[in-house]
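Researcher: Final request for today, and then I'll write up notes for the group meeting. The sequence and the SMILES for zinc ion follow.
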Amino acid sequence: MRGTNHPPAHDTAPEPAHGDPLRDPWVPAVRRALVEALAAPATGDVPVGAVVLGPGGPRGPVLATAHNEREAHGDPTAHAEVLALRRAAERLDGWRLTGCTLVVTLEPCAMCAGATALARVERVVYGAVDPKAGAAGSVWDLLRDRRVNHRPEVISGVLAGECGEPLSRFFRSGRPATGPGTGPGSGAGSAVASTGGSPDGS
Ligand SMILES: [Zn+2]
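Model: Predicted protein-zinc ion complex:
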């Protein structure tokens, strides 16, 4: 993580592996969220992770991290995004997360998209899409609905494949079923198609 910046070795191909100016800057933050996601299955939770970065875009300080803890606490609202937003607000000593970015491995559900807008987050960056319960462009697009007065910027599909992989694996391996409607929800397992995971818990 340290060392000299950009050794000028290749003048012609500075970014050989990528080349997406919109998404590439967010890759490190999404990877951080992925590390969080991988901790969720320890409690039977769907592997979704989130990070809140303070003002400064991709280089903003990490204010909070969280993973799905719905099963861990028996709390239907304990989605990674909500927990991360709460922790960031505690850290800032206020609910307005102005200038902050919510980074999450899976497209937010309706609850989390709503919480994000209420927190006045400036931007939402996510990895895999959730075609069954996503509320940031898939099933709904709450974050860009013109009727809402605060509309964060949305950047989707950052490391989508890598973010979806743990979800696929989780559902493929047979998650502990705790009842009907054990949907993912911030943990949505519906994300990556063909996972066989249940749809959002609603
Ligand atoms: Zn959610």
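Model: The two ends are 41 Å apart (CA to CA). The pocket of zinc ion is lined by residues 79, 81, 108-109, 111-112, 185-186 (CB under 6 Å).
Researcher: Thanks, that's everything.
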